[in-house]
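Okay, any thoughts on this one?
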Amino acid sequence: MDDKQMLMIPGPTPVPEKVLLAMAKHPIGHRSSEFSQIIETVNHHLKWLFQTQHDVLTVAASGTGAVEAGIINFLSPGDKVLVGSNGKFGDRWVQIAKAFGLDVQVIAADWGQPLDTEAFRTALESNPQIKAAIVTHSETSTGVLNDIETINRHVKAHGQALIIVDAVTSLGAYNLPVDELGLDVVATGSQKGFMIPPGLGFIAVSPKAWEAYEQATIPKFYFDLGKYRKTAAKNSTPFTPPVNLYFGLHTALEMMKAEGLEAIFARHERHKQATRAAAKALNLPLFAGDDCASPAVTSILPDGVDAEQIRAVMKKRFDIALAGGQDHLKGKLFRIGHLGFVCDRDILAAVSALEATLQELGYERFSPGSGLAAAHRVLLSR
């Protein structure tokens, strides 16, 4: 049946019909008073979602563009930085930092394991010249949630260093109170917890980071966040924005406000726990441990059945899209996204289809219905 695909990947995520209809409207002038009103409302709602009283700036870019902007605006070539790397995206921030001439010290962990917070403490205490720690909060490639709160305490104890956070798959899924924690730069993208298509990036900036901006010398133009700050104060943008994505963002943020932050975070936690309970009941090994599991994505490293065959059957028979592994894990694991516009029914449908897929592929290490029952118990208990 056409048009029935169900996205259970960690991005792009499903888009509500209300948001799609909002984006289907005719564009309006991006310098008009009507659009300025939309920007004003959106900026107010973004501060609510980021839990900050300071700037949250919007750029036309993916999450990668937002993180790059968060790095290059506050540092200079030759600056010493720590970059946490325990997955595809941590590796990417290492590459970006090196591309802009930063002196990079990598704090690495095996894929599937969380970053060692003590390694950050030791590095920060031994080097007063470190200017920033760049950390992925939710590592999308593995389903690991890094302990940003502890790492941030070590950065704060350092005094000089900024903390720059990739919150691409955690912002809007996990409680990350930017001001309460004192995070300096937090970047994310629209196609994750925001429930709209790819194309917008968001960067929260602290007063301490703006002080560093005044001294930063990495060349920039389109991603010069000072330009965005000046125009945001006037409910405008420095360059032509994707107007219709703003229409969708406006509607999505209104939906999120109606649900409330506590309910949003509880929903994502519930779906994480239900998905993991189902995997355990199906005897499918989980890639990330219970103590570091992301609320956005669950990675499964199947034993006795091929990950790509699972994805293929799920797509062909049930029109459910799952994500695959990346880099050296390509073909070895599959990832179930439960981020953004996902409800209990979606989790149950995905688990049920996964059970049927496993049976079709001849996998016999579970009792039929056990995964669905396990997921259902979690959803009923919360």
Summary: The chain has a mean pLDDT of 97.
